[in-house]
Amino acid sequence: MSGKNLFSLIPKVDDLLNNTLIMNILNDFPRVTVVNSIREEINLLREDIKNKNITEENINERLEKLPHLINERIKEKNSFKLKRVINGTGVVIHTNLGRSSIDKDIMENVVNISSNYSNLEFDLEKGKRGSRYSHLEDIISEITGGEAAMVVNNNAAAVMLVLSTLAKDKEVIASRGELIEIGGSFRVPDVMEQSGAILVDVGTTNKTHIWDYERAINEYTSAFLKVHTSNYRILGFTSSVSIEELCELKMKYNIPLIEDLGSGVLIDLSKYGLEYEPTVQESIRKGVDIVTFSGDKLLGGPQAGIIVGKRKYIDEMKKNPLTRAIRVDKFTISALEATLKLYLDEETMLKKVPTINMLTLSLEELEKRANTLYKKLKQEIDDQSMDINIVDEYSEVGGGSLPLEKLSTKCICISLSDLSVARFEKYLRSFEIPIITRVYRDKVYIDMRTIKESEFDTIVEGVQEALSKVKGVL
Ligand SMILES: *Cc1c(COP(=O)(O)O)cnc(C)c1O
């Protein structure tokens, strides 16, 4: 049959609207979505006939699949663009997958606050206008030991606000070895420029000494900035200036010391077998004037930038007009307050803050999970073309935190014989609840550290569907 005649085989929109499958769909979705999806699938078929060598045999196959393809297109059109996914990558603080997830019990507080009115900016005692920054100040001070605190949209905004308040049109001294870039285009020199502060970089890439800082001090110096180079390490012939040394220097000259800690850990992680990461408490105790850190990295809360330190500086920041542009909303405040409350009791926190929980899982627990999922997969999928194993692997902390840390873990490893692993992985990603995995040497890895038991059944379904699709059955 010639190309032209193949076009005549394409059904009309009305014909498809009478198809039983499509008629059922019409009960659940708006007619306009259904009609548009039919048109789009028909156009796609037309394009394929025009551009590809579609044979008569092929076209029948395509025509048979057409209602299903339309069905999938409708579902896709109607689905949310921001979706919940299953993180099988083993990267705990995965910035692309939303960094830290938040426990349902904490979200209850968010639902309660945001589906009702709240005292967001109302002083219940005085019956007058209050400040949204007051709700978190006491608890942050209590946990960190700082005099005062405030919270803004994220840590990038926090650094910007601190510099803009303390150092606009004045000089800030920072080490060259700490002028970092982190993902998502946060670069210390650029943030500095945006804030209006003038960067005076001292030392070299690998070595900075205390006298580098001291030599750079002049009448325009307004602050020292120390940045925790959390996302990389320079190894070998290196030296950086410690917080203690900088504190001594800043006391001598009476110049404030700002520290961007990045990850912002509030507990000593080395107790749980991880590498020691400087805590916020430690910086405050040593005398840093202002510390900034993220709410959704190692703290395990919502996206936020937390500023803690000397009251006189924080009070100035609250008055900075920039604050209005980067203020936090009630969702963030309620989620962060509930998360921070957990930190008052470390035992509870370890269970209830998912990020910390995942980072401190025991190998026994990971192995138990792997066995359960392995059994489920084996039970449901009996297919010669798929090989499933439990393997030893490493997870990552992610979020630019503890870059050298390798966390021993257990993965479900799937290999396929004579089928495309790349397509299999893609089908897992396009599953109703997308399953994000790691592909390495032509095998798919699902890390037990970042998935929950409640997600196992979905994973089994997803693997089944992806296998059928890659075999061309679906
Ligand atoms: C992650 C990070 C930031 C940016 O924090 P966000 O909360 O993503 O805005 C800034 N500085 C350092 C050192 C970081 O690690």
Question: Main traits of this protein?
Answer:
474 residues, alpha/beta, Aspartate Aminotransferase, domain 1, Aspartate Aminotransferase, domain 2, 3 domains, 7-stranded mixed sheet, 5-stranded mixed sheet, binds pyridoxal-5'-phosphate, SelA_trans, PyrdxlP-dep_Trfase, pyridoxal phosphate, L-seryl-tRNA(Sec) selenium transferase activity, transferase
Describe it.
- GO terms for molecular function: L-seryl-tRNA(Sec) selenium transferase activity.
- Pathway: Aminoacyl-tRNA biosynthesis; selenocysteinyl-tRNA(Sec) biosynthesis; selenocysteinyl-tRNA(Sec) from L-seryl-tRNA(Sec) (bacterial route): step 1/1.
- Residues 7-46 form the L-seryl-tRNA selenium transferase N-terminal domain.
- InterPro entries: PyrdxlP-dep_Trfase (IPR015424), PyrdxlP-dep_Trfase_major (IPR015421), SelA-like (IPR018319), SelA_trans (IPR004534), SelA_trans_N_dom (IPR025862).
- Converts seryl-tRNA(Sec) to selenocysteinyl-tRNA(Sec) required for selenoprotein biosynthesis.
- With 474 residues, the chain is of the alpha/beta class.
- The chain has 3 domains: 3-78, no CATH class; 86-95 and 360-470, Alpha-Beta Complex (Aspartate Aminotransferase, domain 1); 104-349, Aspartate Aminotransferase, domain 2.
- 45% of the residues lie in helices and 18% in strands.
- It is built from 20 helices and 18 strands.
- The protein has helices at 3-7, 13-17, 20-28, 31-51, 56-78, 104-114, 134-144, 155-167, 188-195, 210-216, 243-253, 280-286, 311-319, 322-325, 330-342, 346-352, 354-359, 363-380, 421-429, 456-470, and strands at 86-87, 91-93, 122-123, 128-129, 148-152, 171-175, 181-182, 186-187, 198-202, 221-227, 257-262, 290-294, 305-309, 386-398, 407-416, 435-436, 438-440, 443-447.
- The protein has a 7-stranded mixed beta sheet, sandwiched between helices. Strands 2-14-15-18-17 form a 5-stranded mixed beta sheet. A two-stranded parallel sheet has the order 1-16.
- The two termini are 27 Å apart.
- 37% of the residues are buried.
- The mean pLDDT is 93.
- Bound molecules: pyridoxal-5'-phosphate.
- Pyridoxal-5'-phosphate binds at residues 154-156, 182, 186, 227-228, 230-231, 260, 262-263, 294, 305, 400.
